[in-house]
Write a structure and sequence with these properties.
alpha/beta; single chain; 12 strands; binds zinc ion
């Protein structure tokens, strides 16, 4: 090749590269950074075993049995049984209002979205019955802009530091009433208005522990949102800028089920 042709090929190559590069959006670069670990991937769930904190009242919550062993069968398999709402799990809309979407019917595009992290650790440390007020969401929007439709909200209460201590995590009083923080009805209303896909928390329930009517569940699940409960430590997730991948079990007819949740950090 002559120098002229080689230079032309080189310039063409650079131009083609620049064209491709200019099409890469920040979201694409988050995905492209995963294999090379430029993008950090954080796992926001607990491994499932029989030592997790169950909702009070359930006697049996998890069991795994060996089905085949390498010694006997040449391969290893187990069978397992568990509650749909145990450990890090997703509440499908059908968990409350009958006739709404079961876990397998949640549209796949609602399982991916920007994370909105609301940090209430200080408030929750002072008041175990704390409920996220609307002002906290307004403060977030003041700093980061309006919450976009399709966002997934994470309420960081700091309760994950109590996991898996049943007493501390449930925080039941003498009457058996639980005390842990959650969303308020007013906050849930505003987040529904914003068009978010889901409400997550690092506690047993999106409703605060002492709730008797589960009003946030009725409201948010009734509006077609899902809940992510018993998320693990959220302290590495920034207030804004992370992208969430939510992968629930595709269990036909399920009221919810175990879920993997990943945060991608640019
Ligand atoms: Zn729930």
């Amino acid at each position: 090749m002559s120098i002229v042709i080689r230079t032309a090929v080189l310039l063409f190559g650079v131009a083609a590269f620049m064209t491709v590069s200019s099409k890469i959006s920040p979201q694409d670069s988050i995905l492209q950074g995963i294999p090379g670990e430029k993008t950090r991937v954080i796992d926001l769930g607990y491994a499932i075993n029989d030592k997790l904190v169950p909702w009070p009242g359930d006697e049996k919550y998890f069991e795994a049995k060996i089905n085949a062993t390498v010694e006997k069968n040449g391969y290893f398999t187990r069978s397992f049984w568990m509650l749909e709402h145990y450990g890090t799990h997703l509440d499908a809309p059908a968990h409350f209002p009958p006739g709404t979407a079961t876990v397998d019917q949640i549209p796949a595009n609602k399982l991916f979205g920007p994370a909105v992290l609301l940090d209430v650790r200080d408030e929750a440390a002072k008041d175990a019955d704390y409920r996220l007020p609307v002002s906290k969401i307004e403060k977030w929007e003041h700093a980061h802009g309006r919450i976009p439709p399709g966002a997934i909200v994470l309420l960081r209460t700091g309760w994950a530091s109590r996991w898996p201590n049943v007493q501390k995590y449930r925080n039941q009083d003498q009457r058996g009433k639980m005390h842990f923080p959650g969303y308020s009805v007013e906050a849930a209303k505003l987040l529904i208005e914003r068009g978010v896909s889901g409400l997550g928390c690092d506690t047993l329930s999106a409703d605060y522990g002492a709730s008797e009517d589960f009003s946030v569940h009725h409201l948010a699940l009734g509006a077609g949102l899902y809940h992510l409960e018993n998320l693990s430590d959220l302290s590495a997730v920034p207030e804004a800028g992370a992208f969430l991948v939510v992968a629930p079990i595709k269990l036909q007819g399920g009221s919810g089920g175990p879920v993997r949740v990943f945060a991608l950090l640019p």
